[in-house]
Amino acid sequence: MSPLGRLLLLTCFVLPLYGVEKYGSCMQGPTGNPGREGNPGTNGIPGTPGIPGRDGVKGEKGECVSEIFEEPWRPNYKQCAWNSLNYGIDLGKIADCTFTKLRSDSTLRVVFSGSLRLKCKAACCQRWYFTFNGAECTGPLPIESIIYLDQGSPELNSTINIHRTSSVEGMCEGVKSGLVDVAVWVGTCADYPRGDASTGWNSVSRIIIEELPK
Asked: What is residue 21's predicted lDDT score, i.e. its pLDDT?
């Protein structure tokens, strides 16, 4: 081998020992510029389905809710009127008015308007009240008005004869649906004697009945 060949061979073996990497059969050149980004790859194959999860904790029992659709409330009322009743009884029914109640859960509002009078020489008391199918209201209490006269002087009381337009009114719950006989009565007050009562003198008397939502 010639001296030049031995020199080249020695260079290729010795230089790697001093930090020069071997590339091919000789020294590595300078680092090149970074290349451009490649195109996105295609989607991979879908994975296999996972294992089903365990059952959850049992929930609490729910409430049962039912929707009730009711018809809109329609006005339901009636009026019965009399001209000059001039009813002079002290005990008994004065007038009545039949009414058709549409619902059992509704309330009846009643009004009696007419002239009332009580006359007596001694202390007396009279009571005007409503009944529904013959019974007084119990939901919550009777519907009534009273007139009381003190004894005073016999001469003065014997001449008192004042007729005043008055009213008896209230609301009654618990009356069943259907035909209802609404009546106005006159009677005595508890623990007091009766006097000379008069209802509807020389004027119009009326009973007004109205059904109201509860």
From this structure: 46
